[in-house]
């Protein structure tokens, strides 16, 4: 099928409050979100859904649906992100987490890695007191305090440089983020990758907390409680990069197999908590054990946390991650203890 995807940038500009707008025409916000991130391919969506979105954006279907354009991935060398929810270059990524789940540590690590690769990092500080934001200031090149200042700094730095722009959800609700994205697009600066965070932790309770996104990183309370970092949920996190036409088929099939295993593993974990591991059917025991090993493998030491953990930061290429995950799925690591796979780089 022809490579199709939603024009997410257009939706962001035309329909700022997409959650309310979607409900007003009978669309589920979760369905719209999944279409934007590619979890539901455009080719498999209902025609009435696309027509309704085009109506909300006051555009034609030809404007709403982009054909023949690939979504480029920024390889972070963070295993769980690259495998399950790759960062879309020039797109918008939303982080959904409550305080204490590690979203700021992931942000700091992202900035550290991307700056090393030549990206310029820009932060629009949230209004009011946000002392926690100081934890990532050291990894930011340009700190701004107003939307106008952010625009001017990005417009200047964006000439020949790749930009990482970060803002709090408060600037999404006010419309400032959409305004700056449109203004930059109008002057030809389209290579800005935007990170949206929710310092107050209220986004967890919203169906579509940031509006249309190319990438969604959904943090997991249980992973965080068990200190399985980065605590990014591999089931609910997703990205438009994962639409079949945009990535290598090997990546897509490995991601699907890994997600299926982890989904079943989580179901079995619920059974174990209540009844104990002895109640797992013999036919499912291998699934449980491999899920446990895969979850452990997806943990990873960060460079920005070296002084706190005493563990050296690790980078793992996407190709190495795919190779390692296939080994776990196929049973090549069945003889290894879970501890041997925890907080490592590659196998």
Q: Looking at the structure, what is the overall shape?
A: globular
By DSSP, the count of extended strands is: 11
Task: Let me know the CATH homologous superfamily of the largest domain.
Answer: P-loop containing nucleotide triphosphate hydrolases
Poorly predicted ranges: none
End-to-end gap = 36 Å
Name of the CATH architecture of the largest domain: 3-Layer(aba) Sandwich
Count of DSSP-assigned helices = 16
Largest sheet strand order: 7-6-8-9-5-10-11
Question: Secondary-structure element order, as H and E?
Answer: EHHHHHEEHEEHEEHEHHEEHEHHHHH
Mean pLDDT, nearest integer?
Answer: 90
Cα Rg: 20 Å
The CATH topology name of the largest domain reads Rossmann fold
CATH class of the largest domain: Alpha Beta
Strand content: 5-15%
Largest sheet: 7 strands, mixed
Structural category: alpha/beta
Helix content class: 40-55%
How many domains comprise the coordinates? 3
């Amino acid at each position: 099928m022809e490579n199709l995807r939603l024009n997410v940038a257009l939706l962001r500009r035309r329909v700022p409050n997409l959650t309310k707008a979607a409900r007003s025409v009978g669309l589920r916000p979760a369905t719209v979100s999944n279409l934007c991130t590619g979890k539901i391919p455009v080719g498999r969506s209902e025609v009435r859904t696309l027509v309704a979105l085009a109506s909300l954006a006051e555009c034609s279907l030809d404007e709403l649906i982009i054909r023949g354009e690939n979504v480029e991935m920024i390889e972070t060398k963070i295993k769980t992100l690259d495998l399950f929810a790759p960062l879309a270059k020039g797109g918008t990524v939303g982080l959904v987490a409550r305080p204490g789940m590690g979203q700021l540590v992931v942000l700091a690590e992202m900035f550290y890695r991307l700056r090393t690769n030549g990206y310029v990092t820009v932060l629009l500080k949230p209004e009011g007191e946000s002392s926690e934001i100081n934890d990532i200031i050291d990894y930011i090149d340009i700190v701004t305090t107003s939307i106008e200042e952010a625009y001017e700094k990005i417009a200047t730095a964006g000439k020949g440089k790749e930009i990482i722009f970060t803002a709090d959800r408060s600037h999404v609700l006010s419309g400032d983020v959409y305004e700056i994205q449109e203004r930059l697009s109008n002057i030809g600066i389209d290579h800005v990758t935007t990170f949206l965070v929710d310092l107050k932790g209220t986004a967890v309770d919203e169906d579509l907390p940031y509006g249309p996104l190319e990438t969604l990183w959904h943090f997991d309370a249980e992973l965080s409680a068990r200190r399985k970092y980065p605590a990014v949920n591999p089931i609910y996190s997703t990205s438009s990069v994962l639409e079949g036409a945009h990535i290598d088929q090997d990546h897509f099939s490995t991601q699907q197999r890994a997600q299926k295993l982890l989904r079943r593993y989580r179901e079995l974990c619920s059974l174990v908590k209540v009844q104990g591991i002895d109640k797992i059917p013999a036919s499912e025991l291998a699934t449980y054990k491999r899920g446990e090993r895969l979850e452990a493998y997806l943990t990873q030491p960060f460079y920005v946390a070296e002084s706190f953990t005493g563990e050296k930061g690790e980078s793992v290429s996407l190709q190495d991650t795919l190779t390692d995950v296939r080994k776990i799925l196929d049973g090549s690591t069945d003889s290894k203890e879970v501890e041997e796979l925890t907080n490592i780089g590659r196998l």
